[in-house]
Amino acid sequence: MDRTEELRSTEVEDPGGHLHREIRRLFLLFLIFCGCFLQGNLGKIILFPKETSTDHVILKPTVERPLKQLTVCLRSYTDLSRDHSLFSIATPTMDNAFLIFPQPPKSCGVYINQEVISFNVDPEVAAWKQTCVAWDSETGLLQLWINGKRYPRRVTTSRSPIGPQMSVILGQEQDSFGGRFDAKQSFVGELCDINMWDYVLPPETITQYFHSSHNINGNFIGWNNELYSSKGNAKVLKDEFCSLYPV
What are the cysteine partners in each disulfide bond (predicted)? Predict the structure, then answer.
């Protein structure tokens, strides 16, 4: 019997073998799919319940290196009508190395190495909001996206990288490295889907993030990595709503 006839004979003798292997392959793919789906939908929200100078969350970058480029994206829900900090990075020499600082009702400040750029934005409303900021130190190009809309781009005079040593804080605006908080600049409300990259995300990815963040995780700070610690009464809650936004 030649090799071809032998193979045909094997297939005849084991007609269910191929079907069994195919079922097993599909079952494994199903398990992988379910695992990815569940991971993407295990929602959590950080709640800052009241105005204080103590409640905050410390985020821990996965690596320590200077940032020549960055993108930060997050979702927020607040009814604050005063200035407040959404995302704060301080270094030992700069308290506002990077800061996203909404100034309701129609302005948002972004700080880069102490330099502030103010954007005129749509009026604030009490609803979930997605904010992304991207910056490139080589060109100084600064972008602000809110709910999938990119506002007119600006250029910073600063061309210096940020870091490498940095303190990353949610809920408070840092006036020193990791401290000197002011309750009147604190965030009150809910935050989720907080991610940071050490490069500028392309517009199509930011648009994808707005519609669904399930499969997006920052390489510098990743929401799924759980590298954070909460202080004071800031609470990390399991909540599916943020994962489902903006259905």
Answer: 73-132
